[in-house]
Amino acid sequence: MLIALLALYLLGRICQLFPDRIPSLLIVCLHVIPAALFAVIHGSRIYRWRGVLVFVFLCLGVGAFFEILSLWTGFPFGHDQFTSLMGPKLFGLPILLALAYVGMGYCSWVVALTILRCQNRTISGSMTFFAPLAASIVMVAWDFSMEPVWANIDHAWIWRDGGPYFGVPVSNFLGWFLTVYVFYQLFALYLRRREAGSERASYWRFAILFYAVSAAGNLLVAVPWSMPRFITDISGRVWQVSGILWATRLVSVFVMLPFAVIAWVVTADNGS
Asked: What is the dihedral of CA 211, 138, 81, 156, to 10 degrees?
């Protein structure tokens, strides 16, 4: 099942090569739903069903709270508005966007735990706080890689005031860090002193591979033939489309993939 979901997610990333032929909503669904199902199924063996459902509840609850709060007040992400690209909304927030926190949130958590050599260990002591911090960095790297594409090329959302990172404000990444840190920290407190499940390295590597495939998938982003070479954000700044694509690729290759490689190597060293 895990391999099938990973393959389905990979199919979604390949579909990005054909933005003129494949409906955008289908591509979004293939990005989000297989990843969320993967997180639930993979996590059920490590944290049991109760634990993984707590994780899902925290991701959805905290993520939706801050996203909706930001829509109303501009805190913590900044002032943005979602378009119809991602499908049905609840209180202005696309349901698929809220669900996106679950899949990549879980894989980022696994990558961080592995790098810290905390897999198959009870979360306690200083790791109760270091693990959420590390996972937040790994997760924000994912957002850093894809945000300009979804905002300025796919137009899934619009930033009211633009920003210095290809039209994205710095507050967006600070908001992401705050949001994911809160639900990671709450989950770490839930896990504190709870006995950890014991799984072989090969099982942990499924989630690490999923994160790596996400990074590699950013190399497949293509733009419609009709898109001009330059775009103008809502603040009037002009950005080169190829520059956005290359920024996405560079972050993926030099930030996300190294996280995945380090985690993969650690699992081999531990032999768990």
From this structure: -20
How do residues 99-121 score in pLDDT, each as one tens digit? 999 999 999 999 999 999 988 77
77's torsion region: left (phi>0), alpha (psi -120 to 50) or beta? alpha
State how many domains the chain has: 1
Q: Which two tokens stand for residue 181?
A: 């840190």
Evaluate if residue 208 carries a pLDDT over 70. yes
237: Cβ–Cβ under 8 A, 6 or more apart, which residues?
Answer: 162, 167
Q: What residues contact residue 78 under an 8 Å CB cut-off, 6+ apart?
A: 70, 159, 160, 161, 163, 169, 171, 172, 175
- What is the rounded end-to-end Cα distance, in angstroms, of the chain? 22
Tokens 């945000």 locate to 147
What is the pLDDT, as a whole number, of residue 175? 96
Would you state the pLDDT for residue 192? 86
* Residues 6 or more apart whose Cβ sits within 8 Å of residue 135: 108, 109, 111, 112, 113, 180, 184
Select the more confidently predicted residue: 225 or 245: 245
Q: Would you call 57 helix, strand, or coil by DSSP?
A: helix
pLDDT at 270 over 70: no
Query: Exposed, middle or buried by CB within 10 Å (0-12, 13-18, 19+), for 26?
Result: exposed
Q: What is the DSSP string of 168-228?
A: B-HHHHHHHHHHHHHHHHHHHHHHTTPPPP---HHHHHHHHHHHHHHHHHGGG----TTS-
Number of H helices, E strands in the chain: 8, 6
Q: pLDDT digits over 31-77, tens only?
A: 999 999 999 999 999 999 999 999 999 999 999 999 999 999 999 99
Domain hosting residue 243, numbered range: 2-270
Grouping H, G, I as helix, E, B as strand and the rest as coil, residue 23 is coil
